[in-house]
Amino acid sequence: MAKRRKFLKIAGAGSIVGLAGCSGGGGDGSDGSSGSDGSDGSSGSDGGDSESEPEMTFGGDGTVDFGISPSVPQEDLEVQYSPLLDHIGSYLRENHDVPEDLNVEGTVGSNYSAIIQSLGQGTTDIAETGPFAAGLGVMTDNAEIILQRYGYGSWEYKSIIATPNDSDITELSDLSGATVAFSDRLSTSGCLYPLYSMSNQGDLDVGELPEGNGSQAEFDARFAGGHVGSYTLLEQGQVDAAAMGGFVRDTSTGPAPEEWQEVATTLHEDEGLPRAPIVVSPELSDDVKSAIQQSLLDASDDVYYGADGEDGTDDDLWFGRVREAGQEEYQSVIDVADELGVGTDIFEQ
User: The whole model's pTM is what?
Assistant: First the structure.
């Protein structure tokens, strides 16, 4: 398939809407960190010249705005993320010259695009997002990758395309003329890799997808707004196939694994995707970026246990530690996006 266009610098506005929250085991992550940069940035020597002005501000105010992608049901996000956000606020207040009333607020993005654009505009300071969204954010100067997350026993994960158990679709080429659900236009496992596989291995015309309205594609694309949502469309019989992260099949995110098997069959699987990163706004100073990064590298295990503080319960975060990372860890994802010719028009969808 011919490439359409390369990454370009974006223009335009985006917004984030949703839930507001409050506020790692970081063993492997802290070993790989460069904590000296974060601690040096907190010396406060410059701030001593003016008692009224703290050395570090975040987005020009006293709030650290943490963007949360719509990767899991929104009703779960507040109880899952509140201890982590609390920790970031406490760490910054204890170790750096920040406003005394510094607050950390979590906001659920309407989609990945909204989060990436808000980082570029400086209205969001830090965000958890998917590899594709982060990679596109890097290439368009809207985000910088600082950490990678570890979850479900690995630093990598899978992308799958599933069909109903009674489907007569047996290979990717059979998806011609079918209705296919995708998680989000900027989802790595729920859109980017499935489209790439459908094009390269299934010899299907994907048109302008993941940009555009899909009118030129050889199949009908539907965007569910999340991985579980994509599975739900399949379960309800509204689509012929559904793309999603492999964790929907293999964990209790959404259906239990045995419930998934009663509904769906794996048509195609891609392995070795780098697990999702944490990114920061390029509008922040280097000292602030380092301070945020170190706050997560130094986090204890219990910040991942959710609001009840107990490991192994329903409100645990899906990831359990982080390690230092940058663009190089996600270059494979950027290369796949480049092969599909993804450009900045995707931010306007």
Answer: 0.77
